[in-house]
């Protein structure tokens, strides 16, 4: 998207040089794209995009693993990222394809959801008690 906007003002070689120089500066590229395209993302969209990028960075570079309890967060970040990308790309056919595929995933999501909280330990996977994770007092568990 930035490339398209840059090509309106620069030749192909200059455009490629500018993209190469800013390849690791997403916030800078986003600001430049907004300035060149005249499209402004709302403050809430920019905040959601920043949050999505921060969590992605933690997952990719710091080994963060989202827990089962964070699946709502993961879904929200995924949706916001997709919606923002759709707005930036501004391609109706690609947007419709992504959204159609997302509906299929949404229908299948309950089928594929984890049934028990699982954690990876040095010894392997450990399945935890749902009651413990949900905060059922130990004395209630002993009665069974």
Polypeptide structure, described:
The chain contains eight helices and two strands; from the N terminus they run ααααααββαα. With 144 residues, the protein is mostly helical. It has three domains: 1-40; 43-113, no CATH class; 118-144, no CATH class. The chain has a two-stranded antiparallel sheet.
Distance between the termini: 60 Å
Instruction: Please indicate the count of domains.
Output: 3
Radius of gyration: 21 Å
Strand line-up across the major sheet: 1-2
| Structural class based on helices, strands and sheet pairing | mainly alpha
- Uncertain regions spanning at least 5 consecutive residues: none
| General form | elongated
Q: Provide the helix percentage.
A: 55-70%
Largest sheet: 2 strands, antiparallel
Beta-strand content estimate = 5-15%
In DSSP terms (H or I, runs of 4 or more residues), the helix count works out at: 8
Mean pLDDT over all positions:
81
Instruction: Give a count of the beta strands, DSSP E runs of length 2 or more.
Output: 2
The topology string of helices and strands comes to HHHHHHEEHH
